[in-house]
Specification:
About 60% of the residues lie in helices and about 5% in strands. With about 425 residues, the protein is an all-alpha fold. The strands form two sheets. Strands 1-2 form a two-stranded antiparallel sheet. A two-stranded antiparallel ribbon has the order 3-4. The longest helix has about 45 residues. It is elongated, with a radius of gyration of 30 Å.
């Protein structure tokens, strides 16, 4: 009977499956963790053994290495907006971030007067922590105080500045900033598509397997597809860690047996897609095993293989984008232009507001507001682009990874436990319960 909160862990196999599993034992090989092929018997959770000249091995890790991995200290780092972030947040912290994201997503349809009174998920925090906005505003206010209380005529620098035109620099900077945001937004949407595609392929495999495979084998491939899904986000190196993210879902939903976890212990789940590739291989071998056992035909096997490989390709797409962010040269170029342009814009507006007795408070305040708005425009666009570079972090604007994982688990469980029309009385050729 299916548990209401988890996938069951099988304790035995059907005779037909056991016979077929014997055909998947790997040939003799050296126990090399970097090139070790994985036997289906390991996916079933078998222990290390040598039988009939065949080796079924699992790589072991020394206790000191295991303890070292457990004792990793959670480090903090600065986000693009200057705020602090945890390198490996706990599960409760991850859950609170996800709940906040979902609340922010629902605000996009609020009227303007309500939107303006929110601070979470806005540019205000990033602007408040950016030193360039303070340097620019202090420069403007300092020049205006000097112009008002120094007396005398305007200095030569003010005359020269009035003859120059910095709007050309502002136009070029605006173009590059908008281009940068457009580029990062395209990346963001592409990676969102990859995440949703992973969910779709897991559902495809669950739907096909639950109607074609024996219950135990269907349950196994669904567990492993969901485990690969979670391990994929862990391997991206963001806030989702094996200790606080994968282990939580593994404990709640029984995705991997202890023996299966031991068989992948030689792979570092927190760094790279090795575990994903291993689990995907297990799923493909399960499909091949089902075909050989006569549970599915060649067409059904091809469809399942295609869905599993499409899942792998979507996960690889996320890793490809994360491995190659926008060029640092380009982002540094934008920051350098901003660092020169905003102070020059402040100086130009400070000089144009008058000097000595020819000053007016109204012009000074208006120019000050223009300088502040220009800072919001330049710094805000840059921060927006930087935040969208990696959508798998812990920013409020990042993708809702936890929701994707839980939706996939929930839907595949429905598919696995579904009581279809073929089980209902009154249908021709229906099987009795």
């Amino acid at each position: 009977t299916m548990s209401t909160s988890s996938f069951p862990i099988p304790h035995h196999s059907t005779p037909d499956i056991n016979v077929e599993l014997q055909q998947y034992d790997t040939p003799q090989h050296t126990n090399n963790s970097s090139s070790r092929p994985v036997a289906i018997s390991q996916a079933r959770g078998s222990s290390d053994s040598v039988e009939n000249g065949r080796i079924s091995s699992t790589c072991s890790i020394s206790p000191s290495k295991k303890e070292g991995a457990k004792m990793k200290v959670d480090q903090s780092f600065r986000r693009a907006d200057g705020s602090l972030s945890e390198k490996r947040p706990t599960w409760s912290r991850i859950k609170s971030i996800e709940e906040r994201r979902l609340r922010i997503l629902k605000r996009v349809e609020l009227p303007v007067w309500k939107l303006l009174f929110h601070t979470q998920g806005t540019c205000l925090k990033g602007l408040a922590l950016d030193p360039l906005i303070y340097i620019t505003m202090v420069l403007y206010i300092g020049l205006r105080l000097y112009a008002r209380f120094s007396g005398g005529d305007a200095p030569l620098s003010a005359t020269l500045m009035n003859k120059s035109d910095i709007t050309i620099l502002g136009g070029f900077l605006s173009f590059f900033l908008v281009f940068f945001v457009n580029q990062t937004n395209s990346r963001f949407l592409e990676m969102y598509g990859f995440s949703r595609a992973c969910m779709g392929r897991i559902q495809d495999v669950a739907a096909l397997a639950s109607t074609q495979f024996p219950q135990e084998l269907a349950e196994q491939i669904i567990r492993h597809m969901n485990a690969a899904h979670i391990a994929g986000y862990v391997g991206l190196g963001g806030p989702y860690s094996k200790r606080f993210f994968f282990d939580h879902y593994n404990k709640v939903h029984n995705l991997m047996t202890p023996e299966e976890m031991e068989s992948i212990s030689h792979l570092d789940m927190d760094s790279g897609s090795d575990v994903v590739k291993e689990l995907v291989t297990w799923c493909n071998r399960d499909v091949g095993m089902a075909k050989r056992a006569g549970f599915i035909g060649a067409y059904e096997a091809k469809e399942l293989h295609d869905r599993i490989l499409q899942f792998r390709a979507s996960m690889d797409g996320m890793y490809d984008y994360c491995a190659q962010p926008p060029h640092f040269f380009y982002i540094h170029f934008l920051c350098l232009l901003s660092a020169f342009y905003l102070p020059l814009f402040a100086i130009d507006n400070a000089y144009s507001a008058g000097w000595g007795d020819a000053t007016e408070w109204g012009i000074e305040v208006l120019n000050g507001v223009l300088v502040l708005m220009q800072c919001v425009f330049v710094i805000g666009l840059r921060l927006l682009g930087q935040k969208m570079v990696d959508p798998y972090g812990d920013d409020n604007e990042d993708l809702s990874v936890t929701s994707y994982v839980e939706d996939a688990l929930h839907i595949t469980k429905i598919m696995f436990t579904c009581k279809g029309t073929h089980l209902r009385p009154g249908i021709p050729n229906a099987k009795s319960n």
